[in-house]
Write a structure and sequence with these properties.
The protein is mostly beta strands. The protein has a single domain, classed as Porin (Beta Barrel), CATH 2.40.160. The chain is about 5% helix and about 60% strand. Strands 1, 2, 5, 6, 7, 8, 10, 11 and 13 form a nine-stranded antiparallel β-sheet that branches. The chain has a two-stranded antiparallel ribbon with strand order 3-4. Strands 9-12 form a two-stranded parallel sheet. β10 and β11 form a beta hairpin. The radius of gyration is 21 Å and the shape is elongated. The two termini are about 30 Å apart. The relative contact order is 0.21. The N terminus is likely disordered.
Length: about 220
């Protein structure tokens, strides 16, 4: 309701550059809980990963638009159980589609708020265990679902780099709150193994820097 009122309150003003295309680099922090061999839960360390990809946007006016992104993200998490250290790596193609509210998209300085759903597609996982030869201990198994759904939100500022304000430098923050359990524990496992993820939702916090072009 608040967003709808904001949109209706803006003057119906077109801009010469409706489209936007750009690139972004997104250092990403993530943390999620993992299971231990005895069935307990342990919280992993907040770990730095990275992301990067393509931005596509359409602006209805200087103040309101929509933007979609295709972002490759590599998320890592590590934790220690006794003398064994586990490192979990999850790789996703994330596709957020967000409403964008701006103070003036073609102005020399523009502040923005974004929010909307994000689809995540799992494209790879890796589990590395160090500190033990594995003898006499249960084996950790990493298994995740092929897809994820979350809520993406953020804020940022972009600056015009040329006289026409069409080349833009953007800086900002992006958070994603996962809505569903990503763990997939339906596959059969042996008696001496256990799933390292169980009822796990991903939450990430990213900074971003990028360049874009209005056309």
């Amino acid at each position: 309701m608040i967003i709808a009122l904001f949109i209706l309150a803006q003057p119906i003003q077109g801009i010469a550059q409706h489209g936007e295309v750009g690139l972004r680099f997104m250092p990403t922090f993530t943390a999620f809980d993992a299971k231990t061999s005895d069935g307990g839960t342990i919280q992993g360390e907040v770990t730095l990963g990275y992301g990067g990809g393509l931005l596509l946007g359409y602006h209805f006016s200087d103040y309101v638009g929509v933007q979609g992104e295709i972002i490759y993200s590599s998320l890592s998490q590590k934790y220690k159980e006794m003398d064994i250290e586990h490192r979990v790596e999850l790789k996703y193609i994330n596709i957020p589609l967000m409403l964008s509210l701006n103070t003036g998209k073609t102005k020399p300085v523009n502040f923005n708020l974004v929010g909307g759903p994000q689809i995540g597609l799992s494209v790879g996982t890796n589990l590395t265990t160090t500190g033990d030869d594995g003898s006499g201990t249960s084996k950790a198994v990493l298994s995740v679902k092929k897809g994820d759904l979350g809520l993406a939100y953020g804020a940022g500022v972009d600056f015009g780099l040329n006289a026409a304000q069409t080349f833009r430098l953007g800086l900002g923050f992006r958070g994603v709150y996962g809505l569903f359990d990503i763990s997939d524990n339906n596959n059969s496992s042996t008696t001496d193994s256990y799933y390292i993820l169980d009822r796990t939702k991903i939450q990430t916090y990213s900074g971003y820097v990028g360049a874009s072009y209005l056309f």
